[in-house]
Design a protein that fits this description.
CATH class of the largest domain: Mainly Alpha
Structural class: alpha/beta
Strand content: 5-15%
Largest sheet: 6 strands, mixed
Bound molecules: adenosine-5'-diphosphate, magnesium ion, zinc ion
Radius of gyration: 43 Å
Number of helices: 22
Shape: elongated
Number of strands: 14
CATH superfamily of the largest domain: Peptidase M41
Length: about 625
């Protein structure tokens, strides 16, 4: 039963509540029953009298009436001359009272035995029975529950099939854009599902599995649904992480169930999301081997091998980590087709935006091409998210239709997080302003740098201020001078702090910049052959330590490692000097720009460039005048 322990907390949580309820009612019921007569008695019996006094009073003929209660061992005594409504006196009796009975028999007193006035003994008995009953019931319940739980663990995989089935996905290729190559390759799969005869007639074997490889949000799930939709077949889906259960064997039995159901519904499409969760290379990677995962993976491989000929089932799996997949998965007859689903390019983003703008009210003046240009590196999911956020902004601002303003705000929000409230004008706001203007100015004055889009002091996410640049993505390759310009631009923030506020006042605000600077410089040295070390690749493509390959890093000697560090430092030092010079030469301009930024909160790229040009033109004039 140890295996079921991870599930236990759930069960015990439920039964604890149950126990608490039972115990409170148990405490309540007898309490009430016992309390009632006790209260009644204490009221009625208030005046008391001793046994001796009673004996004496009977003898002296002062007693009118005596009621004896043998169970409670009490007598209620009414004296002669006592007021009618006064309570009778209580006398505590012995277990047996032969002499009292004897005396009463010979006296004139009206006496008798009365048992009904006190039922506490009965109540006591009853409450005991009730408690015992409850305890027995509880015990039975616990026993039943534990046997049930073990039964559940046994039939787990079967009873809780976690895959979803959609008879009709309602999605077609028309809903997918920007990943045209993938779409084209998968067009064929639609035909396999629709008209398998076409292929089988000439003896072609239909592929069983297709692996979609791409970053999250690029539309892999959507694409798989579109294939099912286009082919008009049911869509079975499950996520790899759902296969990986704590019970060994559950994942495997889920795989079996899934394929069984699919076979009953063939032709159909099975979609396995996050297949890397089950399909990691066996026996390697962190955490060592994992019985459950291996069993699940083996079952998956068995099922895929077991399709007899052309059963009309096609398995599509998705991952963003193809490097960690077990090679057995990629062998012929399994996921032998691999389709890359990449980030959409400018044109692709435009088309994706068009799809998602269809069901929204978008103002006529909005140009989706411009939006596409502003969103390099966005996935389809990001773009869908941008338009949705823009629609929310529009509703909140009570506008009729989405305008460019909302879309821009939505992009900023998706990239950099929620907008915060700006700081009030103080020293730290000035410092942030100088830092950001430093980035923007050095970027603008370094040839080959991406143009500034805007500088802002409105905080977003973690950042107190932000400088946005418009990357030129169509370019593809980057030159050495462009890389150096980028490093200089990144240094601009920190160097502005140094020059304006002094070395003692520099802040932690540059940590992210420094990280990027180091990354670029390291790439230049170890991968791009752009340093004194020459044309050597010192780092492999994959330096991801979470994957399956430990110790693949740094295949070079300590001596080389020292030189790499030296070269990186050299690149950064040179860029730092250059940046320093730019900032020093433009101090006056910087002061003006910072004042304007603090006043306006945001300076957009065009205005920024105009101001820089005007300033430099004036300086040029001055120089000419001096010369003349
Ligand atoms: P993935 O499975 O690759 O992580 P999804 O298919 O789940 O990505 O994409 C999430 C959502 O993003 C989709 O439902 C769709 O609205 C949108 N989306 C993503 N890629 C595209 C695309 N290429 N074309 C249109 N919409 C897309
Ligand atoms: Mg997905
Ligand atoms: Zn910075």
């Amino acid at each position: 039963m140890k295996r079921s322990s991870p599930r236990q907390p759930h069960h015990s949580f439920v039964s604890t509540i149950f126990l608490i309820r039972l115990f409170t009612s148990w405490a309540l019921i007898p309490g009430l029953l016992v309390a009632t007569p006790a209260i009644a008695q204490s009221k009625a019996d208030s005046p008391t009298m001793t046994y001796g006094q009673l004996y004496k009073d009977i003898k002296s003929g002062q007693v009118k009436k005596v009621e004896i209660d043998p169970l409670a061992q009490k007598a209620r005594v009414t004296l002669k001359g006592q007021a009618e409504d006064a309570a009778p006196k209580t006398v505590k009796l012995f277990k047996t009272n032969p002499e009292l009975i004897e005396l009463l028999k010979t006296s004139q007193v009206n006496w008798g035995i009365r048992r009904t006035s006190d039922n506490s003994a009965l109540v006591n008995l009853l409450s005991h029975v009730i408690i015992a009953g409850i305890l027995i019931g509880l015990l039975l319940m616990i026993i039943r529950r534990s046997t049930q739980a073990s039964g559940q663990a046994m039939s787990f995989g079967k009873s809780r099939a976690r895959f979803q089935m959609e008879a009709k996905t309602g999605v077609g290729f028309g809903n997918v854009a920007g990943i045209d190559e993938a779409k084209e390759e998968l067009q064929e799969v639609v035909t396999f599902l629709k008209q398998p005869e076409k292929f089988t007639a000439i003896g072609a074997k239909i592929p069983r599995g297709v692996l979609l490889i791409g970053p999250p949000g690029t539309g892999k799930t959507l694409l798989a649904k579109a294939i099912a939709g286009e082919a008009g077949v049911p869509f079975f889906s499950i996520s790899g992480s759902e296969f990986v259960e704590m019970f060994v064997g559950v994942g495997a039995s889920r795989v079996r169930d899934l394929f069984k159901k699919a076979k009953e519904n063939a032709p159909c499409l099975i979609f396995i999301d996050e297949i890397d969760a089950v399909g990691r290379q066996r026996g390697v990677g962190y955490g060592g081997g994992n019985d459950e995962r291996e069993q699940t993976l083996n079952q998956l491989l068995t099922e895929m091998d077991g399709f007899e000929g052309n059963t009309g089932i096609i398995v599509i799996a998705a991952t963003n980590r193809p490097d960690v997949l077990d090679s057995a998965l990629l062998r012929p007859g399994r996921f032998d087709r691999q389709v890359m689903v990449d980030y959409p390019d400018l044109n692709g983003r435009h088309k994706i935006l068009e799809i998602h703008a269809q069901d929204k009210k978008v103002d006529e003046e909005v140009e989706l091409a411009t939006v596409a240009r502003r969103t390099p590196g966005f996935t389809g999911a990001d773009l869908a998210n941008v338009l949705n956020e823009a629609a929310i902004f529009t509703a909140r601002r009570r506008k009729e239709a989405i305008t460019m303003a909302e879309i821009n705000d939505a992009i900023d929000r998706v990239v950099a997080g929620m907008e915060g409230t700006p700081l009030i004008d103080n020293k730290s706001k000035r410092l942030i302003a100088y830092h950001e203007v430093g980035h923007a100015l050095v970027g603008t004055l370094s040839p080959g740098h991406d143009p500034v889009e805007k500088v802002t002091l409105i905080p977003r996410g973690q950042a107190q201020g932000l400088t946005w640049f418009t990357p030129d993505e169509e370019q593809g390759l980057m030159t050495r001078s462009q890389l150096l310009a980028r490093i200089a631009g990144l240094l601009g923030g920190r160097v502005a702090e140094e020059v304006i506020f002094g070395d003692a006042e520099i802040t932690t605000g540059a940590s992210n910049d420094i990280e990027k600077i180091t990354y670029y410089a390291r790439q230049m040295v170890t991968k791009l052959g752009m340093s004194e070390l020459g044309l050597v690749a010192l780092e492999g493509e994959n330096d991801n330590s979470l994957g399956g390959d430990w110790g693949k890093r740094s295949e070079y000697s300590e001596a080389i490692a020292g030189k790499v560090d030296q070269e990186i430092r050299q690149i950064i030092r040179a860029a730092h000097q250059q940046t320093h010079q730019i900032i020093e030469e433009n101090r006056v301009l910087m002061d003006q720009l910072v004042d304007l930024l603090i006043e306006q909160e945001t300076i957009d790229g065009d205005q920024f460039r105009q101001l820089v040009e005007k300033f430099h033109a004036k300086q040029q004039e001055k120089v000419l005048v001096m010369q003349g």
